Records
---
Amino acid sequence: MIDAVDMDAAALKAATLVEALPYIRRFAGKTVVVKYGGNALAGTSEHDALALFAEDVVLMRLVGMQPVVVHGGGPQISEMMLRLGKQTEFVDGLRVTDAETVDIARMVLKGQVNPQLVAAINVHGNYAVGVSGVDGGLIRAQVRDPDLGFVGDVTSINPGVLRGMLDNEFIPVIATIGSDEHGQAYNINADTVAGAIAEALGAEKLVYLTDIEGLRRQVDDPASLIRQTTANELESLVADGSIAGGMIPKVASCVHAVRNGVHNAHILDGRIAHVLLLEIFTDSGIGTMIKGSEPQEGTT
């Protein structure tokens, strides 16, 4: 016989499923690009954080969505550089990358972080396929600034590589090393790549998982968390210095994406258990949502 506590728990589960139903219907068949940041990966116990993230992505896939994972690995690259006796230097959130550093970045992203994510997702079935931007000419790049070395800007995305995987119901997991027409590899900011891929695929949502709760109008004031905002407001916050450092590429890619066909962009705290499901399948929402035009109350 079911006791009262079990009955309450069962009722809560049923209510949650009912709440999720309209969102499952709405987003069935829609593409969601998720950038899983190296900081989110390093934010908690790696096993727990990764396992929860993998569950979210697989559930999205099983209810008919098309998740695409783009991953960073900044902390892991910095750790490897430290072990190898190299100094790390950043300019406006971008890593200065000499020839040795681009080899280190490629080794860490393709040899460590990417297989780790793929393996975590595939605990639940044969869903994830790991690729880098070099594969199939997925990410074409050119040098961003000679002073930054082998840091690339995205010149084009080959969406056919990803659409083939999505059509066959796989989950692409993308390491953000791109190349130019001569085969030269470039380390590309993962935030920028995620935005470019979301645009190329006409994604419904672009989601950034990081180690902060969302964007704030005042960095040191938790009460200034921005729940909904627009591309115009974000540009103003960058201009007045409220948003700086490593958040600049993230915000710039959000702004560009929502102005070029992506419905919404979201900045979420990847350390929160099942944060993707909370944002996509519940009424409450979480973190910061960015729209191309003025936000409406109650929109998701």
Note: The two ends are 40 Å apart (CA to CA).
---
Amino acid sequence: MLGRPVVEELVRRGHDVRVLTRTPPSDPLPGAEHHEVDLVTGAGLDDALAGVDAVIEAANTPGTGRKATPVLVEGTRRLLQAEARAGVGHHVAISIVGIDAVPFSYYRAKLAQEQLVQEGPVAWSIVRATQFHQLLDWTFASTARAGFVPANGFAMAPVDPRFVARALVDAAQDGPGGRLAPVAGPQVVPVGQLARQWASARRRRRPALPLPLPRRARRALRAGGLVPAGDDVRSGGPSFGDWLRSDAQPRTAAVVAA
């Protein structure tokens, strides 16, 4: 969802771009050079990172924290070690708003990944973002197949990955900055309202029912765990409703090095 917008933004700004993924892109972008790597084994990293100034890491894997750990945690460890060997000067990591507040297993893996970056051998920047529009699209489609759409009242501020990509490229250009301002969409909206927008746009008539959640997670979400707080939030991009009307299509990528 994020890798391709990052590549597009880097190319647009005139940077030399290397795309690091396990398999070649099906529709490679002009101006981007592909290198085959595997974060789980470390294969290909040393060659791919030779001469690189900065790495923007957008690696991801579906599933729970246990399934994500080989890529997000151990893979990040291998990547940082390879960056240090190659003399990379800046590691930019994408993370998620609320991972220290909402007790999801995947979020625990993201916290461990953040810690590795902060304690690692390469100067770093971390940008936390809210949930991408494509994630909500996928979630609501999944619940619709189960016969309902969520009616929960906890708030979200979903964001377009293209807006997040601009923040990541800005961070890469500015140099190591530590923990940077969180990035969010332009609106804070209850998830039930977002689900109704989705159902109307996708023409899916389903009853609205509360999404069952563990008690601790439900409490954290009701307290605004997924919405960034403070005056330094970088918000913008199309709203979820605008994104739905534009019929944007999700993309997938892994690691981007520039």
Note: The two ends are 18 Å apart (CA to CA).
---
Amino acid sequence: MGKKSYEFLVGCYGSEQEETIHWLELDTADGKIRKLAAFSGVENPSYLTVDSKRNSLYVISEVDQGEVISFGMDHQSKTLQRWNSKPTKGGPCYVELGGDDDYIFTANYGGGSVIVHQLNEKGETVKETDFKTYDPEKSNVHTIRSIPGTSYFVATDLGCNALYFYRFEVETGTLNQIRAVTLPDHSGPRHIAFHPTLNMLYVVTEFNSTVVAYAYDDSLESIELEQVIQTLPSAYSGKNYGAEIHFSHGYLYVSNRGHHSLAVFQVLPDGRLDAMSHTSTTGEWPRHFTCIPDSDYVIVANEHTNNLVVMKKDKQGLLHVLEESYTVGKPVCVHVLT
């Protein structure tokens, strides 16, 4: 299954003088990661995304008054050309393309807001088209995601323990909030994954170490809580903070910071989850990971031990760590180039 090698980008915490963006390659023949290029010039590029049609890269700089920066990508020479940047009017932590890839959406953890920028044909950020702000004392917006196959978006507010649902008006570049949903007490919603065929979304919570599953209808008039399930083994009593969440081939994977593991859930036909196993990330604080599309490989970013770890899924969806790891300073985001 899959290709012989996969290229991917890693964003890391660090100063402008440090190499904080890394262009790497996973060779599946030996399971090793190799460096293709690395770049300085961006402080704390803690989340990034790519528009493969335009060969453009979008990176947020996670500082108190952050920015979203656009780059052109040359895949042959493995180089980045900085195009421009726009202020996010807060401390950003997540960025996503949407609106037929003509807009970029940024979630500001610091200040609790969402900002939308329009892109031109080249892929540069042109202008701000919307700015949604929430409680400046409590709100920490952690992600904003496009709901697949719709014009709707959903954002998590970790500080206010809420999900915000929007209809996106592509003609004006504006988000019209239509619903807000409160999660179970002290959840701290962080990141979101979507079922590939059912109208269900899954939220990993930072404070409760749970996955909270919701079913929704096509118009978002009905959003129902279906399940709350722990991401930790029942015997574990230490501190833990849920982090990232991904679907892959009928299984759901969640990272645990504290237990330092990836939890594996089987996805049942009705969309509910059944806990299966936990695999150590052989490092500390797996802030982010990604399941490489159309493959059995998973790349984990262990922030506190400065390393990337490669895992491989077996036919039952369980994870097995490959022996090699790759050293890189404070990795916090992995994005596969497709």
Note: Residues 129 and 173 are 5 Å apart (CA to CA).
